[in-house]
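Let us practice reading a record.
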Amino acid sequence: MSDSKLRFAYPQPFTPLLVGPGGNKVTVQLTPREDQALRGQPIQWKVEPSGSISLGDGPQTQTLKDGTTANFLSVPEPVDDLVTVSVWDGSQPDAAHYTTLFQCVVPRVWGSMDTNIVPTTPPATTPGSNQLITATATVVDDSSAPVRGLLFYWTGSPATPTSAYRVLPLGLEPVAGQADGYPCVTDDSGMGGLAFANTRPTIILLGIATNTTQRYLVAFSDVAKGIGKLPPLIVPLGDGNVLDLDSQSDPLGVPIFLDPTLSSTQNYVMVWLNGVIAAVGYPGKDYTTTPLYVPKNYFKNEQASNLIGAVISNVAGNGGDTGLLQFPAKGDVPVIEPPQRIRTLEAPTLVRGVGGGAVNQSTLSGGLQIWIPAYDHIDDGDKIQIRMYLQGYFAGTTIKRYGLVQMEVTTSYGDVDDGLLVVANEADFAGYDVSSMGDVGVLQIEYIVDGDEYSKLLTRPFSYAGLGAQL
């Protein structure tokens, strides 16, 4: 009679364990003896170095009906050596031990959405391309090497999107939700993505759950169709129902309010203006009396027409759209551009789109990947701020639009030799189109180390209308 056997089902040896809060699920599968049931068999676990890593479910677990069983390995601090995980059939004396070695890494997780707002999808229908938010996670280790084969979950709060899909060359493949969320696995580039749809207007905190969870606000809304049943937003219009930007002195921007009938401190709010999300409100404030500030650069001036609305969602997940308000605007819009500084550090580079070509949707797909070189005196623990200055045009006009995307990262020991990767959220670049005359905009990127050392500028042609313009 042959002995039982065990195999490591997940993760594979090339997928590391993640250092930090939370646990790493390790799954093994039993091939039983002829007289042995699959369910309920005791599997013994041992991990070395035992002082650095704990077994969340203890030294013994029980198999399920398919013969699998899992344990959660917690790696709170970096470990110098490889981790040895051993398992054996606890029902057999002198059972063979099955062992795998794992590397442990401190992960960096970057999230990117191709848009942060799409229309809803009617129940029992397949979403169209403009009804999907495609979300991509990029997971690298502390030397910016991709973490391959990592199983993670896309989560949602206060509710998960009603459907998720893998986007394949021949169409959409539905993904079934599990207790932990929608499962996804990183590829050889450390990237893993799904596309999401929702049947009703709502705002969702879309999360990337690895050993920690990072969240991104997205909206499913038909606000741009002008069919919202909630009252329109209140905008400080002047004579002739014109927004005078020069009369708005608050440095935060133009104050926008919800209609008094929508009084609540339990709402998320996302303000949609001219095709993009321009302001976000979180539970805890009543936005009928507390303003949502929209920066002036989101408005079309020169007496051009602006269109504004909002999607509102309470903490229980129920949401609705406001009606639209249309109005012209006049006055000056601030020009956002890099400061005049002495620049001594080497310029950043783009990982994709090498050369002098324009940064556009193909370059931004899955997130804009920026490489920060190993600058002089780079050290573990440096605080790096990345600033991306955007200049483009409102679609169909010659009106310029300016913007700024900012990120921060702290260097680790693994960055000091070659530099590090950062990935900017694609949705943050939406709304910078070519002009009606065919002119393209400009993207300039700099990084600042510890608040005072500036890099040289990376300057590239740039245009990206964004998917929000297709609503």
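A brief commentary: Residues 361-364 form the longest helix (4 residues).
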